[in-house]
Amino acid sequence: MTASYPATRMRRTRATAWSRALHRENVLTPADLVWPLFVTGGQGVEEPVASLPGVSRWSLDGIAARAKEAVALGIPCIALFPNTAADRRSDDGKEALNADNLMCRAIKAIRDACGNDIGVLTDVALDPYTSHGQDGLLDRDGYVVNDETVAVLVDQAVNQAQAGADIVAPSDMMDGRVRAIRMALEMAGQHNVQIMSYAAKYASAFYGPFRDAVGSGGLLKGDKKSYQMDPANGDEALREVALDIAEGADSVMVKPGLPYLDVVRRVKERFDVPVFAYQVSGEYAMIEAAAAAGAGDREALVMETLMAFKRAGCAGVLTYHAPLAARLLGA
Ligand code: PBG
Predict the structure, then answer these.
(1) Which residues have CB under 6 Å of ligand 1?
(2) pLDDT mean across residues, the chain
(3) pLDDT, tens only, 130-149
(4) Is residue 12 part of a domain?
(5) How far is CA 92 from CA 31, 129, 149, 176, in A?
(6) Could you tell me if residue 115 is inside a domain?
(7) Predicted ipTM of the assembly
(8) Into how many domains does the chain fold?
(9) Alpha-carbon separation of residue 207 from 123, 175, 204 (angstroms)
(10) 165, 190, 203, 237: most buried by Cβ count inside 10 Å?
(11) What pLDDT does residue 3 have?
(12) What percent of the chain has a predicted confidence (pLDDT) above 70?
């Protein structure tokens, strides 16, 4: 009997560390990371978020310190989310338009601390400012009205840009908001302020800890299904992305992250646009819970999931694990 050998041995290139390094198809660097941070009032305040172990809300001094830490770690961009004081939340969310609100003051604190060494991404949506926790304005039946909401989001985005935001990121899922925001930014002379649209944002069960962090969770009545996408849909995500590109988005986001990597891949294959994904709060909490339960190694879980985003085609990932990942990458 003649010996039989496999025609191809896939294991040959995997046998040694140097060979695995040589054949590696994707790389993750700190420059792929965007670090989301929660802002709160006061001075010298750090409030741990119970449902996000290891994540805190920081007052402005702490936010500036985190921004410096990001620069030192090679993280190019941070995303800001305010926990607005209860007495500044209202039906119409008008605190979003206050030029001296927590968000605007945080942008300026970062600029004072870091100059232009870091990008500041700001969320455009009304949920941190409304007394009902929805991302927009409600009609009498509690329906989030589109065009009236867009008019407010436009002013919110210009307010953030004028405070010094580099990237405004509409996360509201109203129709037509990207074009309206782009036009308003141009008219305000903010030609270089980018728009990263949350183009394919799903009505997800993975946002719970975030809503705790910005204080909107307890306020929210009902759900966000009349504007955020149905998790069953993929083709619809491509239509959303096509519209946002046509309306002037510089980059697009898919959110949540890991459960929607198929959407990332489809967007990447269809469009020549930078695609980002948001590894959201519930995903972070899931990894932390798994590690705490001894179900997996925390650092390995973090790095494997982040590499999966790169493999799927992401230009970058918004992740609460950004500083840990940057450290593990040797920054
Ligand atoms: C709000 C917004 C949400 C997130 C980012 N922007 C929550 C929501 O839509 O209810 C979620 C981020 C996360 O879960 O980490 N417009």
Answers:
(1) 123, 125, 127, 135, 171-172, 207, 210-211, 224, 280-281
(2) 97
(3) 999 999 999 999 999 999 99
(4) no
(5) 37, 8, 9, 20
(6) yes
(7) 0.97
(8) 1
(9) 15, 21, 6
(10) 165
(11) 82
(12) 99
**3-state DSSP assignment of residue 81:** strand
> Amino acid identity, residue 256?
P
CATH for 308: 3.20.20.70
pLDDT of residue 150: 98
What domain range includes position 313? 26-328
Q: How far is the CA of 207 from the centre of ligand 1 (A)?
A: 6
Give the pair of three-digit tokens for residue 261. 């990597």
DSSP, res 230: P
Which residues have a Cβ under 8 Å from the Cβ of 145 and sit 6 or more positions away?
Answer: 136, 137, 138, 139
Helix (H, G, I), strand (E, B) or coil at 194: strand
Which pair of tokens denotes residue 125? 């949506």
Distance CA 282, CA 277 (A): 14
Specify the residue with its C-alpha closest to ligand 1, atom 7: 207
Using CB atoms within 10 Å of the CB of residue 230, give its burial: 0 to 12 exposed, 13 to 18 middle, 19+ buried: exposed
